[in-house]
Specification:
The complex is a heterodimer. By secondary structure, chain A is mainly α. Chain A has 2 domains: about 15-330; about 340-455. In chain A, about 70% of the residues lie in helices and about 0% in strands. Chain A contains 18 helices and 2 strands. In chain A, strands 1-2 form a two-stranded antiparallel ribbon. Chain A starts with 12 loop residues before the first helix and ends in an 18-residue tail after the last helix. In chain B, helix 11 runs antiparallel to helix 12 (about 360-365) and helix 14 crosses helix 15 (about 420-435). Chain B starts with 16 loop residues before the first helix and ends with a helix. Chain B has helices at about 15-50, 55-90, 90-100, 105-125, 135-160, 175-180, 185-205, 210-215, 220-250, 260-285, 295-355, 360-365, 385-390, 395-400, 420-435. By secondary structure, chain B is mainly α. Chain B has 2 domains: about 15-335, Formate dehydrogenase/DMSO reductase fold (Up-down Bundle), CATH 1.20.1630; about 360-435, Cytochrome c-like domain (Cytochrome Bc1 Complex, Chain D, domain 2), CATH 1.10.760.10. Chain B has 15 helices and no strands. The chains are: A mainly alpha, B mainly alpha.
Chain lengths: ~475, ~425
C-alpha cells in the first residue's frame, strides 16, 4: 500500500524469493555449515598421518567451497534482502525495525566468517612451512566452522520468531525468538541435516577427485562416512523431535478444517520424504563405513540430492505454516497489517493505497479498478498468467464454464474462512465486485500484467500528496491549519 | 510536480536516528573503499594484461593484481550488507520505492555480481590455462571489468532516484531513472575515484618488501611500475576535482545548502596539499614516490570522510520535507486506523449479540458460509440446492457432514468437521433448512 508494486508475472514474486533462498540455504548448509568441519577434519588427518594426500585433497575441496560460497552463496544471501525488499517491503521493513540489532550482530559474525574463509583458504599453501604454522592454520579452520554455525543459529532465531504467532504483538526481542518452542528443534534439525549434507557432498567430491588413487579413496570415504554416520544418528533423533513439536504447535493455530487437511498433506509429504530419505542415506552411509570401496558414486550423488530435497520440502512446509501471515498475527501475506483491515474495509483499499491510480469504483471503470485492487491485494503471491496464476486457480474451480463475477465475489468474501491460509479480503464491497469483474474478464482475454518497474506510478493525486485524513483532526500538527 | 507521500512503517527506529546516520556514513565509506579497490583492481589487471602482450612482466603484475581483487571483492560484498541494512531502516519509504521503480535492474544486481565474481575467479585461478589463447583470457578479464563497471551504475541510479520523490511519477523503468539529472555525472565522479583509490593502493602495494621478493621481473623495474600507478593517481585526482565540480554545478536544487557547499569546499581544499606533494614527487628530481606518502593518504582520507558526510547532508536536505510530510501522514493514518478499529469492534459486539439469538446462524457462518452461498454455487452447492435435496431431513445433513464424500464431478470433496458437536450440527442443519 505504501510502496510502488514491483511484480514479475511469469515466475511470480514468491518463486523469485524461493529460488534465491533455497539456493542460498542449500549452499549454506551443504558447503559452509556442514562441509567446513569435514575440511578441518581432513587437514587434521593430514597432520596426524603425515600423508600429504590428505592435505592436497582438503585444499582441493576447500577451493570448491571457497569459490561457490563467496560467489553464489554470498550473493544469494544478499539476494534475499534484495528480493524481499522488492516483493514485500512492508514486511521486511517491519522486521528490520525490530530485528535490526539481531541482524547487525549477524553481520559482524558474517564479516568474521568471510575474513576467516579467506584467511583459511589463501594461507593454506604458506602454512606448510612449519608444523606450528600448520597447527595455527588448522585452528583457523575450526574457528571458521564455528562461525558459520553461529551465523545459522542467529538467523534461525529470527526465522523462528517471525513464525511464532502472538509474540510479535507483545515482545519484540530476539530472546523471545530463541525461547520460542520451535527454536531448538529447528536448530537441531538444521544443524544435523547440514552436517550430513556437508559430509555427503564432500564424499561425492572426494569420489570424483580420487579416481586415480583407489586405496586412498577408500580410507578417506570411510573416515568421512563415519563422521557423517554419527551425525546421521543425531539427525534421526532431531527429525523425530522436530516432527513431534512442530505439528502440534502449528495445528493449534489453524482453526479451519480445509487448511488442516492441506497442512497435514504437506506435513505427511515431509514425513514420507524424511523417512525414505533418512533410510536411504543411512543405508548408504552404513555400507560406506563397512565397504567404502564398493559403494558406487551414483549412490552418494542420490543421497546428496535426497538431502537437498528434504531441506527444500522442510522449507516449503515451514513457509506454508506461516500463512496467512507473513509476520504472525501482525501482517498478512499481502503486506497489510491486521490492524489496518477495519479502515480499509470501511473506506476501501484504493482510498488509502498511496500509489493507486484509481480511487473509486464506478459502473464504467470496474475492470480497471479491479486490476488496481488485484495489484494491491493479490500480486504478492499470485500472478495473472505465470506461476500460481489466478487464471489457473479460477480454471481449477470453474473450468471452462463462463466465470461469473457474482460467484467469484461470493467465494472471495468468505475465502479466509474456507481456506485459512488465504488472508481475508482487505477492501470494501464495491472493490470486491470490481476485483471479481476483473478476474472474470481474464478468462478469455487476459491482459499482460506489469509492475511498477515497467509501468511506473501514476501522477500523485490529492490523496497521495496530502498528509491528512478526511475529517479527522491533523494530529501531527495540532496548532497548524488544515491542509 | 508534487511528490507522492506514502506512510512510514509504523514501528519505532531500533536506535536513535543520529547513531544510525553515523553508522551509515562509516559503514558506507568502508564498503565503497573496497568497491573501489575491487573495480580498480579488475581494471588495472586488464590494462596490465594487455600491456603484457608486449612486455611479459606486465602479465606477472596483472596476476598479482588479481590476487588482491579476490580479497577486496569479498570484503566489498560483506561490507555492503551493513549500509544496506541501515538504509533500509532509515529510508524505508524512499529506498523501497526507488528500488521497486527500477526493480528488474535492481534485482539483476545479484546475478550480475555473481557472474562478475565467477569470471574473476576464472580469470585468476585458470591463469595458465590460456597460454595459447591470450585473447580469450583477456576477453574474460574485459567482461569481468565491464560487469564491475555496470553494477555501480545501477546502485548510483537507485540512490539518486530515492533522493527525489517528485521525479518518481516520471520514471518508467531503469533507463529513464538512469537519465535523470546528475546520475551519469555522479557515475563519472565515482569511476575517477575508483582509479584514484586503486592506483594509490597499488603504489603502496607494489612498494612493500614482499612484493619485491615475490615478483621477479625480468626487464621491468618495480619503480617503473610504481610510477605507472602514481601517474594514474595524480591524473585521477585532477579528473576527480573536475568531475566533482561538474556534479556540484548540476546537482538538483532540492538538497543544496550553504553547509553542504562549505563541506564540499573543505573536502576539496584538504586535497590540495596532496596534489602539490604528488606533483613534486612525480616531476622534481631528488623526490621519491614515498615522500610524504602518509600525509598524502591522510589528506585523501580526510577528504573522503568529509565527502561522505557531505553526501549524507545532501540526502538529508533533499528529503527533509518529504520525511516530515511522511511522519505527519503516518501519525494521521494511525489515528484513522484506530478510529475505524473502534467502530469495527462496536459492530462486532452487536453482531455477536445477534448470534446468540440464532446459534445455528453463527455456527453456519463460521464453518460453512465460506463454501456455501445462499443462492450461488461457489465451492460447494448453494443453500437452495441443499434445501431441496434435504427437505425435512436435517439428520441427513448432519450425517453427511460427519462423513462427507464427493457427489459432484465439478466440485471438490467436502472436508470433515470432527470439531463440531452433534448439537451444533443439528443447529446448523435446522438453520439451513429454515433459511
Amino acid at each position: 500500500m505504501d510502496f510502488p508494486i514491483f511484480h514479475i508475472d511469469f515466475i511470480g514474486n514468491r518463486m523469485l524469493i524461493a529460488v534465491d533462498a533455497i539456493l542460498h540455504v542449500i549452499i549454506n548448509h551443504a558447503l559452509a555449515v556442514g562441509a567446513l568441519p569435514v575440511i578441518a577434519l581432513l587437514e587434521l588427518s593430514g597432520i596426524r598421518t603425515k600423508d600429504p594426500r590428505w592435505d592436497r585433497l582438503a585444499y582441493r575441496l576447500l577451493k570448491i567451497i571457497f569459490i561457490i560460497t563467496t560467489t553464489v552463496g554470498a550473493l544469494t544471501g544478499v539476494g534475499i534482502w534484495f528480493s524481499a525488499s522488492l516483493i514485500n517491503p512492508a514486511a521486511i521493513g517491519s522486521l528490520i525495525r525490530v530485528f535490526f540489532w539481531g541482524w547487525f550482530v549477524e553481520w559482524i559474525v558474517f564479516v568474521c566468517e568471510v575474513s576467516l574463509i579467506m584467511a583459511y583458504f589463501l594461507s593454506w599453501q604458506s602454512s606448510a612451512r612449519s608444523p606450528e604454522a600448520k597447527l595455527k592454520h588448522l585452528r583457523l579452520g575450526i574457528f571458521l566452522a564455528a562461525f558459520s554455525w553461529i551465523t545459522m543459529a542467529i538467523i534461525v532465531a529470527i526465522l523462528g520468531f517471525m513464525m511464532d504467532p502472538g509474540n510479535w504483538m507483545s515482545e519484540r526481542t530476539l530472546i523471545s525468538g530463541v525461547l520460542n518452542p520451535m527454536y531448538f528443534p529447528q536448530l537441531a534439525f538444521r544443524t544435523t541435516l547440514a552436517m550430513v549434507m556437508g559430509g555427503m557432498t564432500m564424499i561425492c567430491l572426494t569420489y570424483l577427485f580420487t579416481r586415480n588413487d583407489l586405496p586412498f579413496r577408500t580410507t578417506v570415504i570411510r573416515a568421512i562416512s563415519s563422521w557423517s554416520g554419527i551425525w546421521m544418528l543425531t539427525l534421526i533423533i532431531a527429525s523425530v523431535w522436530y516432527y513431534q513439536v512442530i505439528p502440534q504447535h502449528m495445528l493449534a493455530n489453524i482453526p479451519v478444517a480445509v487448511t488442516t487437511q492441506e497442512y497435514v498433506s504437506w506435513n505427511s509429504s515431509l514425513k514420507w520424504l524424511l523417512t525414505v530419505g533418512l533410510s536411504f542415506v543411512g543405508w548408504v552411509l552404513w555400507s560406506s563405513v563397512r565397504h567404502p570401496g564398493q559403494v558406487h558414486g551414483a549412490k552418494y550423488l542420490a543421497s546428496v540430492l535426497l538431502l537437498f530435497a528434504m531441506l527444500g520440502q522442510f522449507e516449503r512446509v515451514r513457509e506454508f505454516i506461516r500463512k496467512p501471515f507473513i509476520i504472525g498475527n501482525y501482517m498478512y501475506a499481502n503486506g497489510i497489517r491486521v490492524e489496518d483491515y477495519p479502515l480499509l474495509q470501511r473506506d476501501g483499499i484504493l482510498q488509502h493505497a498511496t500509489y493507486a491510480g484509481i480511487r473509486e469504483v464506478t459502473a464504467d471503470n470496474k475492470v480497471a479498478a479491479g486490476r488496481e485492487v488485484f495489484e494491491q491485494t493479490c500480486t504478492r503471491c499470485h500472478t495473472v498468467n505465470g506461476i500460481n496464476s489466478i487464471r489457473g486457480q479460477l480454471k481449477t474451480m470453474y473450468g471452462d464454464k463462463p466465470w461469473q463475477p457474482e460467484v467469484i465475489a461470493a467465494y472471495i468474501e468468505n475465502m479466509h474462512g474456507a481456506r485459512y491460509f488465504m488472508p481475508p479480503f482487505p477492501g470494501n464491497k464495491a472493490e470486491l465486485d470490481a476485483l471479481s469483474v476483473y478476474l472474470a474478464s481474464q478468462q478469455k482475454r487476459a491482459t499482460a500484467f506489469n509492475g511498477a518497474q515497467t509501468n511506473g506510478i501514476p501522477k500523485p493525486d490529492k490523496i497521495s500528496a496530502s498528509t491528512v485524513y478526511g475529517t479527522l483532526p491533523n494530529l501531527a500538527n495540532p496548532h497548524g491549519e488544515q491542509q | 510536480m508534487t511528490a507522492p507521500i506514502p506512510r512510514d512503517i509504523p514501528l519505532p527506529l531500533p536506535a536513535p536516528e543520529g547513531l544510525l546516520e553515523i553508522l551509515l556514513i562509516a559503514a558506507f565509506l568502508v564498503h565503497i573503499l573496497f568497491v573501489h579497490l575491487m573495480i580498480g583492481g579488475s581494471m588495472f589487471s586488464l590494462v596490465c594484461q594487455i600491456r603484457g602482450l608486449k612486455t611479459p612482466d606486465y602479465e606477472k603484475l596483472a596476476y598479482r593484481i588479481m590476487q588482491t581483487v579476490t580479497v577486496n571483492k569479498s570484503l566489498a560484498v560483506v561490507m555492503g550488507v551493513a549500509p544496506l541494512l541501515i538504509i533500509n531502516t532509515l529510508y524505508a519509504p524512499q529506498f523501497y520505492a526507488s528500488s521497486a521503480l527500477i526493480g528488474d535492474m535492481w534485482m539483476a544486481v545479484i546475478p550480475l555480481v555473481t557472474l562478475a565474481f565467477l569470471l574473476a575467479y576464472a580469470h585468476k585461478f585458470w591463469w595458465n590455462h590460456f597460454l595459447n589463447i591470450p585473447e580469450l583470457h583477456i576477453g574474460i578479464a574485459a567482461l569481468e571489468t565491464v560487469l564491475f563497471l555496470v553494477i555501480p551504475l545501477i546502485f548510483m541510479t537507485n540512490v539518486n532516484l530515492m533522493l527525489f520523490p517528485e521525479y518518481w511519477p516520471k520514471v518508467t523503468g531503469f533507463f529513464s531513472a538512469m537519465l535523470l539529472p546528475n546520475v551519469l555525472l555522479r557515475y563519472l565522479h565515482f569511476v575517477s575515484a575508483t582509479v584514484l583509490f586503486s592506483s594509490l593502493f597499488f603504489v603502496w602495494w607494489t612498494g612493500r618488501k614482499t612484493f619485491r621478493v615475490e615478483v621477479q621481473f625480468s626487464e621491468l623495474r618495480v619503480i617503473d611500475v610504481r610510477r605507472f600507478f602514481y601517474a594514474f593517481a595524480f591524473g585521477a585526482t585532477i579528473f576527480q576535482i573536475l568531475t566533482g565540480l561538474m556534479v556540484f554545478v548540476s546537482l538538483p536544487a532540492q538538497g543544496m545548502s550553504w553547509g553542504f557547499t562549505a563541506l564540499l569546499m573543505l573536502g576539496g581544499l584538504v586535497v590540495l596539499p596532496a596534489i602539490w606533494w604528488m606533483w613534486q614527487n612525480l616531476t622534481r628530481p631528488g623526490h621519491l614516490l614515498d615522500d610524504n606518502f602518509k600525509q598524502i593518504l591522510t589528506c585523501f582520507a580526510c577528504a573522503t570522510i568529509i565527502m561522505g558526510i557531505a553526501r549524507h547532508d545532501y540526502r538529508e536536505n533533499a528529503l527533509a520535507d518529504h520525511k516530515a510530510a511522511i511522519a505527519e501522514k503516518t501519525i494521521n493514518y494511525q489515528a484513522a486506523v484506530k478510529e475505524a478499529g473502534e467502530q469495527a469492534q462496536l459492530a462486532a459486539i452487536k453482531a455477536k449479540e445477534n448470534d446468540v439469538a440464532a446459534p445455528g446462524a453463527a455456527a453456519f457462518n463460521q464453518n460453512c458460509a465460506a463454501c456455501h452461498h445462499a443462492t450461488l454455487p461457489t465451492v460447494g452447492p448453494a443453500l437452495q440446492e441443499i434445501k431441496e435435496a434435504y427437505a425435512n431431513n436435517p439428520d441427513g445433513i448432519a450425517a453427511w457432514t460427519k462423513a462427507p464424500g464427493k457427489k459432484r464431478p465439478d466440485s471438490m470433496k467436502m472436508p470433515g468437521f470432527p470439531q463440531l458437536s452433534d448439537d451444533e450440527l443439528t443447529a446448523i442443519s435446522q438453520y439451513i433448512l429454515s433459511h
